[in-house]
Amino acid sequence: MSQHKPIRLIVGLGNPGAEYAATRHNAGFWLVDTLAREAGASLRLDSKFHGLAGRGRLHGQDVWFLEPQTYMNRSGLAVVALAQFYKILPDEILVLHDELDIGPGQLKLKQGGGNGGHNGLKDIQSHLSTPNFWRLRIGIGHPGNKNEVASFVLKPPRREEQELIDAALLRAEQGMALVLVGEMGKAMAQLHTDEAKKRQHKAAPGEAQ
């Protein structure tokens, strides 16, 4: 199994301000908040990085945490500023973000690839001049109509969705030890579990699948 570089910067994507705090688009912020607390990192506004930034030690690794405060479509400004300042390469960056293409309760870890129309990813890719950073996609589901996407991501998840997302975030937190040291194959095996399907199996163990 190929070993990748350790992760030195974890970026959570979201929009600043209390009115956005509970919305689906801020799932990346939710996970960074948890990881930063666990690492003993205090996220403070740093104007040169256009965001809330802090450093801590998580699972034995020194890591920077960043929440851009630029609004989603200008996230790359913050990422490139911190990465250049501390000489962090794109393949040492993990971006945590909401993902429409997978359901609540699901996580997908990947490196590179397209941006799926996600404005935060699009801007980061543009500023870094490469798609070669890592992403942890946090499933929020899709409204079913692409014309409703803009309003969908700016609303809070329904209660049952929030429960699935919270369970996935807990799984992400537990899997971070593997991610940080570059054991991406093992991390994927742990993270790519569908929480909704797990619950279905528990609820109806005697039913044919």
Ends distance: 32 Å
- Range of helix content: 25-40%
Q: Tell me the series of helices and strands, N- to C-terminal.
A: EHEEEHEEHEHHHH
Shape field: globular
Structural class estimated from helices and strands:
alpha/beta
Q: Treating each run of at least 4 consecutive H or I residues as one helix, how many helices?
A: 7
Low-pLDDT windows of residues: none
Number of strands: 7
Using the CA coordinates, give the radius of gyration. Answer: 17 Å
In what order do the strands lie side by side in the largest sheet? 2-3-4-1-5-7-6
Keywords: Cytoplasm, Hydrolase, RNA-binding, tRNA-binding
Main location: cytoplasm
Family: Belongs to the PTH family.
Enzyme class: hydrolase
Write a structural description.
The longest helix is centred in the C-terminal third of the chain and has 22 residues, at 159-180. Strands 2-3-4-1-5-7-6 form a seven-stranded mixed β-sheet, with helices on both faces. The model has no long low-confidence stretch (mean pLDDT 93). It has helices at residues 27-39, 75-85, 119-128, 149-153, 159-180, 184-191, 195-203; strands spanning 9-12, 44-46, 51-58, 61-68, 93-99, 107-111, 134-139. By secondary structure, it is an alpha/beta fold. The chain is globular, with a radius of gyration of 17 Å. It has one domain (9-203): Rossmann fold (3-Layer(aba) Sandwich), CATH 3.40.50. It is built from seven helices and seven strands, in the order E-H-E-E-E-H-E-E-H-E-H-H-H-H. The record marks 15 as: Discriminates between blocked and unblocked aminoacyl-tRNA. This is Peptidyl-tRNA hydrolase. One of its GO terms (molecular function) is peptidyl-tRNA hydrolase activity. Belongs to the PTH family. It holds the Pfam family Pept_tRNA_hydro.
